[in-house]
TrEMBL record:
Its main location: membrane. It comes from the Bacteria. Pfam families: UPF0014. It comes from Desulfocapsa sulfexigens (strain DSM 10523 / SB164P1). GO terms for cellular component: plasma membrane. InterPro entries: UPF0014_fam (IPR005226). Belongs to the UPF0014 family. Keywords: Membrane, Transmembrane, Transmembrane helix. The chain crosses the membrane at residues 6-24, 36-57, 63-81, 93-116, 128-147, 191-213, 225-246. This is TIGR00245 family protein. It is found in: Membrane. Signal peptide: none annotated.
Amino acid sequence: MNVISLSTFDLSLAASLLLILAATSLRIGLGLERRIVISGIRMTVQLLLVGMVLKLLFASEGFIPVGFMSIFMLLVAGYEVRARQKRKLRGSTGYLISTGSMLVSSFTVTFLALTVMVGVDPWYTPQYAIPMLGMLLGNTMNGVAIASDRLTTGMYDQRGVIEQRLLLGQSWQEASGDIRRDCMRTGMIPIINSMAAAGIVSLPGMMTGQILGGSSPLDAVKYQILIMFLIAAGTGFGVLAAIWLISRRLFDDRQRLVLDCLISVK
């Protein structure tokens, strides 16, 4: 089965719907029209560029180009996590923690899937490695960003409670335990909701894309199940690592809460 090719007119027609949405926002005073248009333009440019890059990667099939692309995706994801924080760790610490958490979780899970579960040879074949890593990184990035933002904001807002618990003799793990557990739950809720709704409320993008591309629905479902498990594991481990590392940074060796390492973004 051949995929129906989309023309420039088809894409323009879809873009016109976005412009109508922006005009509606302007008309009723939502204030989102600028962000809608800029996000649409940015998405179009980014996807066109990555389409050209992937075409070159698929043609080369070398480890070095795939490695460079993977590292670039990781660095951008780390930047996006830091950019979404209301209260950030000073210096490069926050960036290193978020990037390191995603490196350990997403890359490890992707490597395991490529070598053991999918069994593609070589394991860095770009047709498999880049899309799989992209899906894991994107979801892990969202989980880490949400959980990290919730953690630093929660620590700051409840600093009085935490310091009182420390004065009563609790360790930093005990004094901040409720906040950290709440942040971990918050960071993992999106992927848990996605798994709960998959197939009933929504048809995931990868599965839909494979079916549109002519794959057997059962084969598409199997791949989607695999990807959902991998994303859940990657997101969960990434969130756990980021929360632990950021929490450890917010307390010194004498078990004192150190909030002067945070900067607020207005």
